[in-house]
Write a structure and sequence with these properties.
The protein has a single domain (2-257), classed as Metal-dependent hydrolases (TIM Barrel). The chain contains nine helices and eight strands. The protein has helices at 17-26, 39-51, 74-82, 104-121, 133-140, 159-167, 185-190, 227-237, 242-257; strands at residues 2-6, 31-34, 56-60, 87-96, 125-130, 150-152, 171-174, 199-201. It has an eight-stranded parallel sheet, sandwiched between helices. Strand 7 (171-174), helix 7 (185-190) and strand 8 form a beta-alpha-beta unit. Helix 2 packs parallel to helix 3 (74-82) and helix 4 packs parallel to helix 5. The longest helix is centred in the middle third of the chain and has 18 residues, at 104-121. It binds zinc ion (ZN). Zinc ion is lined by residues 92, 128, 153-154.
Length: 259
């Protein structure tokens, strides 16, 4: 299995990163996609990949929360990082109108600049969208045909939004949100409608610890070793056997990130 979204640069992994990676491997997670969320984090993510070259690849980009930190130098630095062999996608980029940590016009400009960069470099994009679907779709649609791949990670939208994403031939990342009996109800139904060749599974660790883990972990920190649990819940929602679904998801992830 492949965790297509882990924030391994996060300070909550500072003390025991090697153990976290080892536990993931032990749990059957073969590879990790380490997310870059701004220039420094993207550089850090690429550095971590060189510690575990067989296991980790990364992304390079600027998260909408950090759009306000972008200077004239940021995009050239992302471009340089993107030339490294371990960097497989541009992102995490997109829009977040839920928390509005950066002004919306700036989020939109920084998102579009990264779509243009990905198109120029012929690389896939790794995207985030929260409470901003209409603008997200309007900005992405004209670029879509110029991008070799486009993943909307941590999808938590509606059925109509899912259909819109599939109409643009997006890949869809599903996290442990699907394991939440209350917040995840709609998502549990929606995952049935994602074709296996467009579906990927991710932890978004250290965030989004699956709520239904038993026994409950002592720490609220999510880890890639919980990925198989999330994948089994997705299989259950789709009335599919994990042993038939999981290899398909791995294949989809490998093809997207060229693993
Ligand atoms: Zn995100």
């Amino acid at each position: 299995m492949i965790d297509v979204g882990i924030n391994l640069t996060n300070s909550r992994f500072e003390k025991d990163r090697a153990e976290v990676v080892a536990r993931a491997i032990e749990a059957g997670v073969e590879q990790l996609v380490v997310i870059g969320t701004d220039v420094d984090e993207s550089r850090h993510a690429a550095q971590l990949c060189s510690l575990w070259p067989e296991i980790c690849v990364s992304t390079a980009g600027v998260h909408p929360h950090d759009a306000k930190t972008v200077t004239d130098l940021s995009l050239p630095e992302i471009r340089d990082l993107a030339a490294l062999p371990q960097v497989r996608a541009i992102g995490e980029c997109g829009l977040d109108f839920n928390r509005d940590f950066s002004p919306r016009p700036q989020q939109e400009a920084v998102f579009e600049a990264q779509l243009a960069l990905a198109a120029e470099l012929n690389m896939p994009v790794y995207m985030h969208c929260r409470d901003a679907f209409e603008r997200f779709f309007a900005i992405l649609a004209p670029w879509r045909s110029k991008l070799p791949g486009a993943l909307l990670h941590c999808f938590t939208g509606t059925r109509a939004e899912l259909e819109a994403c599939l109409s643009l031939d997006l890949h869809i990342g599903i996290t442990g949100w699907v394991c939440d009996e209350r917040r995840g109800t709609e998502l549990r139904e929606l995952v049935r409608h994602i074709p296996a060749n467009r579906l990927m599974v991710e932890t978004d660790a250290p965030y989004l610890l699956p709520r239904d883990l038993r026994p409950k972990p002592k720490s609220s920190r999510n880890e890639p070793c919980y990925l198989p649990h999330i994948a089994r819940v997705i299989a259950e929602c789709r009335d599919e056997a994990p042993q038939s679904l999981l290899p398909q998801l791995t294949h989809t992830s490998r093809a997207f990130f060229m693993l």
